[in-house]
Amino acid sequence: xxxxxxxxxxxxxxxxxxxxxxxxxxxxxxxxxxxxxxxxxxxxxxxxxxxxxxxxxxxxxxxxxxxxxxxxxxxxxxxxxxxxxxxxxxxxxxxxxxxxxxxxxxxxxxxxxxxxxxxxxxxxxxxxxxxxxxxxxxxxxxxxxxxxxxxxxxxxxxxxxxxxxxxxxxxxxxxxxxxxxxxxxxxxxxxxxxxxxxxxxxxxxxxxxxxxxxxxxxxxxxxxxxxxxxxxxxxxxxxxxxxxxxxxxxxxxxxxxxxxxxxxxxxxxxxxxxxxxxxxxxxxxxxxxxxxxxxxxxxxxxxxxxxxxxxxxxxxxxxxxxxx
Length: 324
Hints:
Layout: E1 2-8, E2 15-21, H1 64-70, E3 78-81, E4 88-93, E5 101-105, E6 107-114, E7 122-129, E8 138-145, E9 166-171, E10 176-181, E11 186-194, E12 201-206, H2 207-215, E13 219-220, E14 226-227, E15 236-244, E16 249-253, H3 256-264, E17 268-278, E18 285-291, E19 297-300, H4 303-311, E20 315-323
Antiparallel strand pairs: 1-2, 3-4, 4-5, 6-7, 7-8, 9-10, 11-12, 11-13, 11-14, 15-16, 15-17, 17-20, 18-19, 18-20
């Protein structure tokens, strides 16, 4: 039972009611149980992270051994010309090993394709050939021939003067063309001369010129000599000789029209070389003229030589005249 009593606080004038528990009676009511905290639900498992795919292996870099076992894999050739056309170098590089390089310096030949005039320079075509079949023939055209000097007009380009005391001949040892005094000793045979350096053929019945050419390295191909026709023969036809100062080569023709054209293109008319019969004549043995695309001509009556030259890409221009 709880009784209320008034207690006088000695320090205060007012009374304060207090309550005291006297015991007995019923127990205090039970404090209700705190409800259980519900279980926290399980966190769902994270899905597995997919495996990172393996990085593919880097292919092995080919080494020098591959060339030994598989052979070279050559790239396309490149060609480098000098500015003057006198040199051309071909190069190719192995794709498997760039330290494997093949190169070759070409053999250069040239020809005049446009002769100079008094107003414009002439043009030379330089031709580069190689022994390695992987390198193809190359050409380069250069306008490098100086303008020509004006020439005195002439009423007649063709002269019948056979006895000329000088001949313009290239000395292969000096590399220069020289106007050489020739001991004129006319003879009845045409001698075929061959230059082993330039592969040019020269035809002459001048024994002095033959001797001089032999002295500077030309070969006398005596088996190809032939007899000239007498100039007094009613059917005799003159063969004219011309010289190209830019290529140092000679040319022979029975055609006045061809002579005049060649002279207009820069050739120098030298003289009547000798006499022959016309190609339609019933006299004499036919002589064929052949032409090589690199420039030179050749004249021969030998059918075996013709067949051989044709197999070497010479072009047969047919019978030009007849000789004895």
